[in-house]
Amino acid sequence: MNEPVLAIANLGKYYGPGCERCINSTGPVAATNICPHCGTVIACHGVTFSLQKGEVLGIVGESGSGKSTVIKAIHFDIEPSMGEMYLNLTIDHSRRENGLLAIVNGKRGFPVVDGKDNIFTLTPFARRQLRNVCMGIVYQNPMLGLRMNFSAGGNVAERLLMDGWDHVGEMRQRIRSLFERTEVDTKRMDEPPSSFSGGMQQRVQIARALSTEPSLLLLDEVTTGLDVSVQARVLDLLRSLTRELNLATIVVSHDLGVINLLTTRTLVMKSGRIVESGLTNQVLEDPQHPYTQLLVSSAL
Amino acid sequence: MAEQQGGAGGTLSSKTLTSYLQETPPAGRISTTNRFAFLDEATKMEIRRKTLKAVAIPGYQVPFGSRELPIARGWGTGGIQLTLALIGPEDIVKVIDQGCDDSVNAVNIRKFIQQVCGVEVTEKTAEATLIQTRHRVPEEPMGKDQILVLQVPIPEPLRDVEPSEQETRRMHGEADYSSIWLRLYEDIVAYNEITIGARYPVLVNRRHIMDPSPIPRWDVPLLHQSETLYLFGAGREKRIYAIPPHTEVHPLEFADHRFRVERFNQGCMLCGATDTYLDEIVEGSTAQRFYTCSDTAHCRARQEQQNKVVAP
């Protein structure tokens, strides 16, 4: 079996002072993630999983179950309280060796990602480099992922610029082909995304996420808030992209339909813990945990 | 303050700065009598220390405790503090404002330095050992025994793209400069060229992006691998930064949209120079446009040279 691209071990994120009884008095059995003794919020605890190349993993759960916390920790948007993260990737440094910033952004300053070092212990600088080159994220709210006062093309260009592209013509060509792939009207690439519809903003986000050919794609509730026909088109696009590019993908959603359509394996989260995991069709058709059973019966 | 005024028998405004400085201070206060270069020694020491740090990390903005001066913040107090901390009795000072030696700002700063240091002043770039300037670098090439002090209004090159100081510091620390590159990209998309006239962002020593103060693009290439030490002082923003001699300074540019300096279609109407940065003058009645050298001392020297040649 191959080494996993991404491995997460014992990830935890707590907000508050913390006490000895925090962990035992929260979780799915206690049906809360707030410690009754000290008020600490256990956003997630003991989250462990790994991801192979080309695999699409779903994380499903209700609001406040900690699924977004997990994806934000992986994207270094928040600092986890505990846990380890390992990445095992081959990275092409050829482009970054030349630009003006080669000394700081080139291979020499780049962290080693051979799956041996805990990524969470790297410096913020190294993590930012890693994130830019290896990860793409699509947020539920386009305001988080896009700069609304710059053009849609500029939003994609920003990632390319971070990656050392220094030719405007080449960049625009790349942006155009990305927009063609994600079905954004290329005639509107110089307009700000604030003038776009919700579905189109999501597609700009997807183009931006894929621009540096990352190995890991993170989708945080991508279709929530879109109407059903647009949802279907965005999901269609994502499904074909993940297959075509052989990306390791994590899909966070509370929508079992999305999980069913996109993913091969699923984690079910409740009150900050993983309560069930397995192949998606297995989890959805034969749920073992009472919460999963509730979720499935209420959705279908 | 009231005691002081009463004791001296007059109001503060009626006295000259020198008499104010030489007056016997009230007991318990540090003496200002006969203090060379206005600032107290501790302040000078701090500024020198911060300057050394700035030289050690080219392009990095070093915070310093900017002191009150008898000039308002925003009128060159950063540059003045650097000048006063570095100046010695032997120094020869030149002060320029937008290339001009006799504008109000330059004259007053020069007078102030003369008053508190008693040093010699000059208008000739080659004679000066310490040059304080605003918005221009002298046309005449400078040597390794000279220091150019630039007054800086906004030291943060990322301020236009990121309003938060905490965030810009993080961006410098992590060399996260994509947003300023993005600004250039957007410029090219909208206007097919980079539209920054002054304050053109430069990458110093291939590490820090730096604001070269509002010098025109014309002066930016002079910063690259220069013989001279360039010091930048922002009094209001409390920052010092530096470009030491022989440092790489690259203006930000794209492979297909290169950085370029201003182009003028004519020469200076006074000295005929075509290789200098020119100011545009519009005559009121005829709306005719004339161009003259922005560096007045350099222009005058050239004119004198020409007159000599004409009349042997």
Describe this structure in words.
- The complex is a heterodimer of chains A (300) and B (312).
- Chain A has helices spanning 67-74, 102-105, 124-134, 142-145, 152-162, 168-181, 198-210, 228-245, 256-262, 280-285, 290-299, and strands at residues 6-15, 41-51, 56-61, 82-87, 135-138, 216-220, 248-253, 265-270, 273-279.
- By secondary structure, chain A is α/β, with parallel strands linked by helices.
- In chain A, the strands form two sheets. In chain A, strands 5-6-7-3-8-9 form a six-stranded mixed beta sheet, with helices on both faces.
- In chain A, a hairpin with a 2-residue loop joins strand 8 (265-270) and strand 9 (273-279).
- Chain A is globular and about 60 Å long.
- Chain A starts with 5 loop residues before the first strand and ends with a helix.
- Chain B is α/β, with parallel strands linked by helices and 312 residues long.
- Chain B has two domains: 8-156 and 200-251, Bacterial phosphonate metabolism protein PhnH (Rossmann fold), CATH 3.40.50.11310; 263-312, no CATH class.
- Chain B is 30% helix and 16% strand.
- Chain B has helices at 2-8, 17-22, 41-56, 77-86, 104-117, 165-173, 178-191, 220-223, 296-310, and strands at 62-63, 92-97, 120-121, 130-134, 147-151, 202-204, 208-210, 229-234, 239-243, 249-251, 278-282, 289-293.
- In chain B, the strands form three sheets. In chain B, strands 1-9-8-5-4-2-3 form a seven-stranded mixed beta sheet.
- The longest helix of chain B is centred in the first third of the chain and has 16 residues, at 41-56.
- Chain B is globular and about 60 Å long.
